[in-house]
Design goal:
Number of strands: 10
Radius of gyration: 20 Å
Structural class: alpha/beta
Strand content: 5-15%
CATH class: Alpha Beta
Shape: globular
CATH topology: Cytosolic phospholipase A2 catalytic domain
Largest sheet: 8 strands, mixed
Number of domains: 1
CATH superfamily: Cytosolic phospholipase A2 catalytic domain
Distance between the termini: 36 Å
Number of helices: 13
């Protein structure tokens, strides 16, 4: 696996947004092992950037901000954390192999005819998985890397179960709120701590006055399973506060935003639940039903769809809908829709889902029907990504010409 980018530190960092025409944002949803799907999409996007700018090109070279929730937070760290040569720790093409290798160890499967009973017994006593392998893996990969060390700005949502409020770890805030400048490993472990699946995570971090702040965190999906709106909001706040990388951009210049938002798939078209079923459910059924967790699925999908709808309406109103791309698949069925069935067969199936998604037409959510529908004359997702790659490459070149 090629973790060190060819060419090492020779590649010049992307100049800040105030030297260009756009503010570029990449956002990645939560979804457990379904992080393979955006992994496939990102590998294709990066390959198109490499065709334009050479084999050393990496996703982090083109986005001013990368946001990720839960498994998307882990992907964000993989793309933006520096290796020893101060280049992204992982190339996008290495994301899928990472999930193939480690998912079965993060989510070990209980076999045999009593697997369902065993899993239920585990969930009655605590989380389904102990998280030990995941924690050791992330700590080993990221070491002592802190939020301020990332090669481009990142935003990773979590939720503090003690304070009952979201905690948004943002690179932009590390100077003004130094208690948020935590180790990236702790942030990734926290944002992926999905209720009923993985244990909550607690750690302490110090502020500028050496005062300790304690965090008691769970899955960022509780706050924002689709982190796109959080990312846009964070940039907007920094524009208002006249952040050095964004000043003198004006607060209302939303037409500058270029956003790629990647979902991790869902099973909407399967229609596996209905009101007649849910009317009979007690606590246990809402927590576990046919290898799913209906209450978590409902909350996560509701928030993700509302974010997508909001973004589409705003970009349309600003005549900038050509700068907003949401790639999502709502046709998953059976174990493909799970967040943790990490069998070899299922992981390979998710890779194929991502590959087919590239060939599907670009789409947007229709809340009346609850499904994604093709955009007229929008082309395929693969074609849209090629178009966005060209825009990103041109923006990078334009900024570099302005700082010479």
């Amino acid at each position: 696996m090629e973790n060190v980018a060819a060419g090492g530190s020779s590649r010049v960092a992307m100049p800040p947004p105030n030297t260009g025409k756009l503010i570029t944002i990449l956002a990645i949803d939560g979804g457990g092992i379904r992080g393979i799907i955006p992994g496939v999409i990102l590998a294709y996007l990066e390959s198109q950037l490499q065709e334009l700018d050479g084999k050393d090109a990496r996703i982090a070279d083109y986005f001013d901000l990368i946001a990720g929730t839960s498994t998307g937070g882990l992907v964000t760290a993989m793309l933006a954390a520096p290796n020893k040569d101060k280049r992204p720790f992982y190339a996008a093409k290495d994301i899928v192999p990472f999930y193939r290798e480690h998912s079965p160890k993060i989510f070990p499967q209980s076999g045999g005819p009593f697997a369902g009973v065993i899993n239920l017994a585990k969930m009655l006593k605590g989380p389904k998985y102990d998280g030990e392998y995941l924690h050791k893996l992330i700590k080993g990969l990221l070491g002592g890397t802190r939020l301020h060390d990332t090669l481009t700005a990142v935003v990773i949502p979590t939720f503090d179960i003690k304070r009952l409020q979201p905690v948004i770890f943002s690179s932009y805030e590390t100077k003004s709120r130094p208690h948020l400048d935590a180790e990236l490993a702790d942030i990734c472990i926290s944002t992926s701590a999905a209720p009923t699946f993985l244990p909550a995570h607690t750690f302490k971090n110090k502020d500028a006055q050496n005062n300790e702040r304690e965090f008691n965190l769970i899955d960022g999906g509780i706050a924002a399973n689709n982190p796109t709106l959080v990312a846009i909001g964070e940039v907007t706040k920094q524009v208002v506060m006249k952040h050095e990388d964004l000043f003198p951009i004006k607060p209302m210049e939303y037409g500058r935003f270029l956003v790629i938002s990647l979902g991790t798939g869902n099973a909407k078209n399967e229609e596996k639940y209905n009101a007649k079923m849910a009317a009979k459910w007690g606590l246990l059924s809402w927590l576990t039903h046919n290898n799913s967790t209906p209450i978590v699925e409902a909350y996560n999908q509701a928030s993700a769809d509302m974010v997508d709808l909001h973004n589409f309406v705003v970009f349309k109103a600003l005549h900038s809908d050509d700068k907003y791309l949401r790639i999502q698949d709502d046709t998953l069925t059976g174990s493909l829709a799970s967040v943790d069935i990490a069998t070899k067969e299922n992981l390979e199936g998710l890779v194929k889902v991502g590959e087919r998604l590239l060939e599907k037409p670009t789409s947007r959510i229709n809340l009346d029907k609850g499904v994604y529908e093709p955009i007229e004359k929008g082309g395929t997702n693969k074609e849209a990504l090629r178009r966005f790659a060209k825009i990103l490459s041109d923006e990078r070149r334009f900024r570099q010409s302005n700082v010479k």
